Amino acid sequence: MNPGMIKNIYYIISKELLIERRDASVFLSSLLYLIAISFVVFKIFSSLEGPVKMGLFWVIFLFTCIKIVGGVFSYQSRKRKLNIYQLYDPVDLFLAKFAFSYLKLIIAGLVLILLQMLFSGSALVNAFLFGKTFLLCALGLSLILSLVSAIASYSDRQTGLVAILSLPLVIPILLLGMRLSLISEGFFQDPDSSQYLLILSGIDLLLLSLSIIFIPLIWKS
To answer: Are 103 and 31 in contact (CB under 8 A)?
Structure first.
């Protein structure tokens, strides 16, 4: 990364933060959705224990991610889209929007973790392993959803397209996240947890590389 790219990314993130502060209702509504669905799930299951707890965590987090990141590349008009096309380098814009979305996903994930701890009445057994798993999975989900959102921004039905296109891509990340979560909670012993973390890191690096390669091609169309 050259200094010019870092400066551009910082500028775009600061602009996104300003827009978010002016219209905080969008992100807050996503958090409200997260809290409401967590409460409903707890009422249905009465207690959150074992693999069910981890499975529900990842399912709720996935749909919250789609809600938060699904419209990251949406624009109100073709004129604004053309203006953005002329102002920013596509890679700079993608990395900035991806980074900002990643920060929002971390906040949403922390809220969900606290809610599950509150409703289940139990803390995480291996918080360090679960934390690393969560950060790597959130990184991969943010990359996939940001790229798919960029592709779907050319359609009039962006939200539906993001859900349809992203779900098959996120399955490997969710399966690895689920397995590592179960290991972190001590539901079964697996000496290869570091291998799973390396696989997750490799998937994230691959997704980042593919995004940097493909986003200029998508941008030109």
So the answer is: no
pTM, entire model? 0.89
- pLDDT tens by residue, 2-48: 666 788 788 888 887 887 777 777 788 888 888 888 888 887 877 66
**Count of CB atoms situated within 10 Å of the CB of 190:** 12
Structure-block tokens of residue 150: 């960029």
Dump pLDDT digits (tens) for 110-120.
999 998 888 87
How far apart, in whole angstroms, are the C-alpha atoms of residue 91 and residue 97?
10
- Nearest CA among 88, 37, 36 for reference residue 59: 37
- What is Dmax (Cα atoms) for the chain? 56
Hey, is 195 helix, strand or coil? helix
Distance of CA 201 to the CA centre of its chain: 15
Residues 6 or more apart whose CB falls under 8 angstroms from that of 4 comprise none
Range of the domain at 55: 3-220
The total of structural domains in the chain comes to 1
